[in-house]
Specification:
Strand content: under 5%
Distance between the termini: 27 Å
Oligomer: single chain
Low-confidence stretches: none
Shape: globular
Largest sheet: none
Structural class: mainly alpha
Number of strands: 0
Number of helices: 5
């Protein structure tokens, strides 16, 4: 299987999961805060930290890294939607909510990627 097919295969799982998280969060939470995008980005950061550490330790093959990191995590996480939602909150003058979203997303993303890496170190 060529590399680009692995990326597509991972994306075929990650993109619908991201969509589902967004729709489900809006349906269940009825909140202005974009919980679905936050959950997708946080989950992707955690899993990507795990995958990156496993790949660095040699426990994950390059092809599996393409499938999981580039394909799945690339499609699951979404910088563009995060940016759009941040701009939308700002335009609606929900500045406190926008600032909270920014800080929570960046903080959780970095923290969870380190946590995922720590789990991989402990597992391998």
């Amino acid at each position: 299987m060529t590399d680009w097919l692995l990326v597509i295969a991972g994306g075929l799982v990650g993109a619908p999961l991201r969509y589902y998280l967004g729709v489900d969060a809006k349906f269940r939470l009825h909140s202005v805060f974009p919980w679905g995008t936050f959950a997708a980005n946080a989950g992707a950061a955690l899993f990507l930290g795990f995958v990156a550490e496993a790949a660095a330790g040699g426990d994950l093959g390059a092809r599996l890294n393409l499938l999981l990191a580039t394909g799945f995590c690339g499609a699951l996480s979404t910088w563009s939607t995060f940016s759009y939602e941040l701009l939308t909150l700002n335009s609606a003058r929900r500045l406190t909510l926008a600032a909270g979203y920014l800080l929570l997303t960046v903080g959780a993303g970095v923290g969870l990627s380190f946590a995922g890496a720590a789990v991989a170190r402990a597992a391998f």
